[in-house]
Amino acid sequence: MARPRAHSAADGPKEPHSVSLKVLRLSRPSLSYQYPLPAANTRISDKASLSYPSDSIDNQFILAPNLTLPPAFGSAYVGETFACTLSANNELAEDETSRVVTSVRIVAEMQTPSQVASLELEPVDDTSARDGLQKGQSLQKIVRFDLKEEGNHILAVSVSYTETLIGSDSQAAGGRVRTFRKLYQFVAQPCLSVRTKSSELAPLEVENKSLGPYGKSRLLRFALEAQLENVGDGAVVVKQTRLNPKAPFKATSLNWDLERTDQSESQPPTLNPRDVLQVAFLVEQEEGQQEGLEVLQKDLKRDGRAVLGQLSIEWRGTMGDKGFLTTGNLLSRRQT
């Protein structure tokens, strides 16, 4: 006959904490839409379908004068900055006189698929953390983290505080340090999908007197193309695409930011969900550039491929959210 398991102190009911933790993601609001009724000679007012009718605005305009707060956590995209506020709240009742909460401290870290990073909390100094929290008060901190990887992310938040017992003479009769930890999981997904292709162009021959009176050097040239696809849920404005070349190469943009003879400025392209943008760069070996030349020759001899550089992309969301993405080293096609 199986014997019942002996009870331990850990199996007893856990005493509730005097401090609670609330986590709220900080994100921008979205535009609010309204659907006005068509103007017609009916008894129904054309303002009947409006959430916030007003005489000072155009009631036939589809955008309402109010903004909509995010109803849920939303999507987290690689390249954006994840921000949230951490609030430690004193939950002692107003008539509670036997306990006092002091020395409240919040520590946060982000667990990514490849590392665990400690997070800096803002503001750094806070008097409530040192002097204690009064009943009903909160200690609030803000954390920010640049999302650079796809996959599961876990925000781990630890709260510690000192719970002091007050005796009948209103003096401290004892105390203890209490702590608890909470985990918040979310998935970072890509906003822009990047596909690249390089093509080798005819080399440029230039004079090189170090090889003799008729010596010539061949400077390598490549065309680098990239397709940017918006795989997110909302439209984005591509503010900048820049190729950071690796020596001894230099890069010239062939896109909308190319200098024009008529001095006209082109507007940055807008990508709706599933739209694709094609960008291109001319990559040329710099004449007389010795930096990186030896490494380039070794790479071509060993692998038949050259490292051209890294592609940096900057975009903005519909409400101005910033996004930034940098690819790994882009290589040329293998020479045959």
TrEMBL record:
Residues 223-330 form the Trafficking protein particle complex subunit 13 middle domain. One of its GO terms (cellular component) is TRAPPIII protein complex. Residues 17-188 form the Trafficking protein particle complex subunit 13 N-terminal domain. InterPro entries: TRAPPC13, TRAPPC13_M, TRAPPC13_N. PANTHER family: TRAFFICKING PROTEIN PARTICLE COMPLEX SUBUNIT 13. This is DUF974 domain protein. It comes from Aspergillus avenaceus.
